[in-house]
Amino acid sequence: MPSLITPRELPKWVPGKVLSASDALGWKDVGQRTYRYVGQDVAVPGIDHFTIVRYCVGATRMERRFDGRWTQTHCAPGDLSLLTRSQGSHWHWTEDIDVSHVYLSEPLVSRVASDVMQRSLAEVQLHDVLRTQDATLIAIVDAITREAHQQGIGGALYVEALGTQLAVQLLRRHAGVSFRDSVVGGRLSRSQVGRLLEYIEARLNEPISLDELATVAGMGVCTFSRHFRETLGRAPHAFVIDRRVERARRLLSQGDLAIKEVATACGFADQAHLTRVFRCRLGSTPAQLRRGSRD
């Protein structure tokens, strides 16, 4: 049995008819599948996402072994089961049921948890819940399920917002969080700064998003932005521009690359973009800087 599987691999272990799926919809960090199942007795490897199971049609006695312990209950429409990321389980039920699965990625849940808790996280785990009722969770899961069926305008952005709401509700009522350290102040650690600088320098010729930098630091976007500014004195975007300008100055003074090639090598959209930034930051153009370095 593999240590972890993806949501798409689940039917290999739990056969069922797929009634809806978000696989081809371009969603980020959130997935949805609706299954029609007959009664089964199945062992399931750990899934690399947090999983929310919403019972839609049919009722059955449900048994599950989780973390070495068996629990049993009766599940019917309106009930939910929760399964934390990376935890293998064994399921047994006897009746036909339709269920909606919603999957949340570990990066999404960790980013949201970091912003909510204002602390550096070690791990998030969902509680072992075979059956619960939570009107807020059900409303969000149902909205995500409808979007997988109907595919409205702006679906990916809509589901991204719903995924964040879902993660917040899970953290408020159904999850445990452990921290890397007892208190995190307003500054990044030395190791975080080192990772960020290495990441930025290696990708100055590419677009660099705030989400990427927050992920490198292991923090939520809002918390990361505050800690970055406190530590380095600049907003992340302004800091990246500073590094692009510094590399461009070095290339212009030391090499023979054409100005448009320097712009590309430093992550500027084109030569005109490089020139605008130089005028704003340095009060001169790239051509003037190059002539000055050769005089």
Tell me what you see in this structure:
It is a single chain. By secondary structure, this protein is an alpha+beta fold. The chain has 2 domains: 176 residues, Jelly Rolls (Sandwich), CATH 2.60.120.810; 111 residues, Orthogonal Bundle (Arc Repressor Mutant, subunit A). 43% of the residues lie in helices and 26% in strands. The strands form 4 sheets. A 6-stranded antiparallel sheet has the order 2-3-11-6-9-13. Strands 4-10-7-8 form a 4-stranded antiparallel sheet, with no helix packed on it. Strands 1-5 form a two-stranded parallel sheet. Helix 1 crosses helix 6, helix 2 packs antiparallel against helix 3 and helix 7 crosses helix 10. It is elongated, with a radius of gyration of 25 Å. The protein starts with a strand and ends with a helix.
